[in-house]
Amino acid sequence: MNSQINELDLLKTLDRDHVWHHLTPGAAARKGLPMFVRGEGLRLWDSEGREYLDASAGGVWVTNVGYGRTEIADAVREQLAQLNFFAGSMGNAPAAAFAEKLLDKMPGMSRVYYSNSGSEANEKAFKMVRQIAHKHHGGRKSKILYRERDYHGTTLAALSATGQAERRAQFGPFVPGFVEVPHCCEYRTQYPESNDYGIRAADAIEEVILREGPETVGAIILEPITAGGGIITPPEGYWPRVREICDRYDILLIMDEVVCGVGRTGKWFGYQHYPVQPDIVTMAKGLASGYAAISCTVTTERVFDLLQEEAGDTLGYFRDISTFGGCLAGPAAALANMKILEEEGLVENSQRMGEYLLAGLHALKEKHPVIGDVRGKGLFAGLELVQDRMTKTPVDESVAIAIAGACKQMGVLIGRTNRSFEGFNNILNFSPALTATAEQIDQILTTLDKAISQVCG
Ligand code: PMP
């Protein structure tokens, strides 16, 4: 026992002195951070022996099937023992088997391109668009539109396609050819007088296309439901109009399902809530629930065909590689992850428990005036906190920090938008693993209720 404690203390010291933690200010890191040591289902235990209920799916919407899934660990171990890696023009069993399973959930989609992270999946999509522009449009049609408040990743092109000023701050200059379109958050509508906001918000995209010149625009990337920018469910009528505009100007629609994909919103993919068909879909996080690093860029056969070689065009095919897109741990884990989702009916559970969660959050809104808006689909929900419901003035970031902190003190981990949108660090989010039970949702809601009372009176 003693030697175990000493080893843990040593590891904590090593962590404090050597690990550069994501999104953690140096002052906090230098004091030393507790470590998580074990997880099971929605539960996590830290090095101090404290137990938590994780309503954030690993902090960043990842652990869709929950912690401690030995069946995924076993599938990965078996695959790695048999064959761990080969990248390039040879096939392998888990990549083929998983592609078939995935495409079965995505009518109209046809090809799966493997890589390692959400950012990378989006970069692949951007490179496809750029190469299509060169092959078919003399280098024009290379601009990619992105939406205010959406996030698409940490690499420089993905960040250049991100509509969150605070995330971009201090990282310029950005990659050229990315152009912003207005957000579609009904609660913060730009057209308060209109009763067809969905159409107006989509038409705002067309205005940008016409301003830039349709012959210069190759694609638009959008989140089906904006995640880090504040759990923004798009307004009625938005998606069909977006598709119509894309078709009118021959613009590819890239759907970033990195967060929403693989059951999070109560359907296999977020876009499937709406009458819209994308050309390219990117996904990562819940794809293997954090048991391996894997992402996919999924395309229609048309996009695949646009990137194939023609006579005399030796640069014709998609000239891209991802070294660890060739690691077989990813598709092996994704295959086992999908088996669990199917066998345990977790996408349906996400839908059912999501409704229960949303109803609970709406009830809390009745009680706490600080809750200005409740949004979400499936086990993917958010609260927008305001000083005053009439003016909708956002609360100071410190209020959201204090509420999330109080929840943590009471053993529940919730998410918080972090510097997503200028002045709007006022959104709390809830995304437990898709195995969540009514009792666990109750624990999240009761804890949140107490935390809001503590912080806001
Ligand atoms: N797209 C969206 C919508 C995301 O939320 C994220 C990450 N939070 C990414 C892309 C980037 O994924 P990754 O961090 O795996 O590169």
TrEMBL record:
> Coiled-coil annotation: which residues?
none
Q: Which cofactor does it need?
A: pyridoxal 5'-phosphate
Q: Which UniProt keywords apply?
A: Aminotransferase, Pyridoxal phosphate, Transferase
Name the chain's protein: Aminotransferase class III-fold pyridoxal phosphate-dependent enzyme
Pfam families under this entry?
A: Aminotran_3
Q: Does the keyword rRNA processing apply?
A: no
Give this protein's Gene Ontology molecular function annotations: transaminase activity
Task: Give the UniProt family note.
Answer: Belongs to the class-III pyridoxal-phosphate-dependent aminotransferase family.
Q: Which domain of life is it from?
A: Bacteria
